[in-house]
Amino acid sequence: MESKGFDGGRKLPLVEDFYTIQGEGYHTGKPAYFIRLGGCDVGCRWCDAKFTWNPKMFPPIDVDEIVARATSHPAQAIVITGGEPLIYPLGYITDKLHEAGLEIFLETSGSHSPSGTFDWVCLSPKRQAPPLPEVYAMANELKVIVEKPEDIEWAEECARNVGKSCLLLLQPEWSRYEEMIPVIVDFVKAHPRWNISVQTHKFMHIP
């Protein structure tokens, strides 16, 4: 990462940062400041952030600028997402945000080695680029996207790799919501250690 101009994480390829309401997962409904980084090598065909995939589109900028904007909002929570944020060294930005007294949540596929210090890790695993064991171990929340019924089998496989306290969530892929939600509801009723996540921000028409 050093050779690519990230200066040990003091610069990162920012796609966008904005203040909104967390729309999915355990922290649904919580005001949060989102920091979205560019670059992803996982390549989900249903991804709703494909515009983030090419890191060359997003030249690295000073992390101190990002932190200054984040701390200017009332949110006490920061969500670092992507793209795939673990591609980059995240220790500097998490240190600076923690110094400001903010909680930091990570959203990741877990396909790259972790860096940085987080208060909450949402692991959303993908078959084509499975999580590394060390990311499974740090996950507070396992959120598996269900595009087809077979994805529930993948979710069960992933659940065997996380800690006992990790929350288990199934989330219908947005374009397949109507087809998948009945399948997910039936499964969760039969397997109550699982909960359901939906993308409420899309119903609210917010970022």
Descriptive overview:
There is one protein chain. With 207 residues, the chain is an alpha/beta fold. The chain has a single domain, classed as TIM Barrel (Alpha-Beta Barrel). 25% of the residues lie in helices and 24% in strands. It is built from 6 helices and 10 strands. The strands form 2 sheets. An 8-stranded mixed sheet has the order 2-3-5-6-7-8-9-10. It has a two-stranded antiparallel ribbon with strand order 1-4. Strand 7, helix 3 (133-138) and strand 8 (141-146) form a beta-alpha-beta unit. The longest helix is centred in the C-terminal third of the chain and has 14 residues, at 177-190. The protein is globular, with a radius of gyration of 17 Å. The protein starts with 10 loop residues before the first strand and ends with a helix. The model has no long low-confidence stretch (mean pLDDT 94).
